[in-house]
Amino acid sequence: MVSGAAVLLSCEMLPHRNNLKFVTRLVIGLCFATLCDLQVFAAEEPGFVTLKIHGDGGEVAQFRAYPESAVKLLFPSGEAILEPDASPEKWQPPSVDILKKIHIAKVYDLKRRFNVMGVSFGDQLFIFDELFGNENSVAMSQLMRVTGAAPKNRAAALNLVKLYLALSNYRLEDPARFMAYKSSESERKHATENTSSFADMIGLSHSPEAVRVGATYRVDFFTYDTPGVSAKISHWKIDVGAENLKERLSEHHVGFHETYSKATSETKEAKNAIHFSVAIMANGITEDGASTDLQFWESSDGPGVHRVHYYYQSHEKAEKLMQDFLEKAVAIIEKRPWLDSDGKAVGTQALVIMTNEEKKILYASQLFEGETSVLELSCASLSNLMAAQNRHLPH
Fold first, then answer.
1. Would you state the pLDDT for residue 16?
2. How far is CA 133 from CA 158, 161, 177, 247, in A?
3. Which pTM value belongs to this model?
């Protein structure tokens, strides 16, 4: 974009009257180009929701909250409670420069049924939660732009990624606890003993690694699904540019991709799709007398899916369970008849957002109520729940 000063300089350098028409055309052209640029920037600006925030001291303020779809879903009243969280101040080491510019908090609904991670900067509020999947990277990219947090080197890119995961997936856990480090790296001293020994055990030769490709840093690393526990790890690949952050892979079960990468006959679209594999199967009985068929489906990218089928002896008990789910839901995204393969209604289905009452953590559930049974599919990621059903999120 050319500034007004540049236009004036051009005028001074054209002393002859014959050039007046040319200057006029030049100025008009530059103004038109500037207007187009502004329109492009405006179009790229992500949508937001004006959210009335209640502080812990009773004060009330308005924020522009991002991402738009997530805020509308979780806070339909347009109000929320914000409580500052000082956890990042205790991180070892607290080396993320952006932390000096922002305020981190937990954002609750007015009934305090759940909380999500929040970052405020001026009058803007960015919310993060594993439930939102790729929307987290959209919020992080906008946060990077408004704070001018472009990474200047590999260490800065890695620090931004650590902050991103602490907000989106680890609920402000210290990155030193969930990152897996190779034993030869100096950063190892900041990790737990469990972390370094596990890195050695699985032969991580590079985690974490940040490689510059053009103007983008490609960060490749491993984390623990549960900090301090080495049973399960996740493999991440995240690109960090000057104004954006993008996840390329979130493999929660290392080695899962191998059976698919060897299938040379698969189309490119099929290879890029998320695959699920049954990892656990069991049976049980609930307190209200239902016999259950339980499964856990591992995912090739992102969180897996829990499947529970409740079987009752009567329609009334199945209906009551369905109503209990709907009454406890934080949000009901969709509720409609459940159709069989012939298009005949055989029950009710609903897509809802639920919360773990103890931990205040969100998850998505797809519910199907039949004559004497209820089928529940649940996942920490809304997009993965949709992928497991080969469905798109309803509008």
1. 42
2. 20, 15, 22, 10
3. 0.78
